Amino acid sequence: MPDQKVLREIKESEAEADELIAEAEQEADTRLQEAREEAEQIRQEAREEAEQEAETRIEDAREEIEEARAEILDEGEQAREELESKAEGRIDDVTEYTLEQFKEAIHAQT
């Protein structure tokens, strides 16, 4: 009978060990799944942050481009105004020169 008791205790110990192994495997599977979910969440957050950073950089670039465009347009406007001013200042000179040339041409014909 002592042998049966020892065998029963061995079987009970094996059953307990199998149960502990099953629980450990279940715990490992659960932790692995949680780690995978956490990793996916981290990847998603990183993607969202990267997209936000890209959008911010694009918006900053657009603002810089718009500022440069406005500056170029202002410079062009100033240059146009200067040219108009110079041209208007020369109208009298050109008109006088044209009249002189016309008068000389008329006098040369008479």
> Percent range for helical residues?
over 70%
Number of separate strands: 0
Strand content: under 5%
DSSP summary: helix tally: 1
What is the radius of gyration?
A: 46 Å
Any idea what the shape is? rod-shaped
Largest sheet: none
> What order do the SSEs take from the amino end to the carboxyl end, as H and E?
H
How widely separated are the two ends? Answer: 158 Å
Flag low-confidence runs: none
The structural class is: mainly alpha
Taking all residues together, what is the mean pLDDT? 93
Write a brief structural summary:
With 110 residues, this protein is mainly α. The chain has 1 helix and no strands.
Please outline the helices and strands.
Blueprint lengths: L1 H108 L1
Describe it.
The protein has 110 residues and is mainly α. The protein has one helix at 2-109. The longest helix has 108 residues, at 2-109. The termini are far apart.
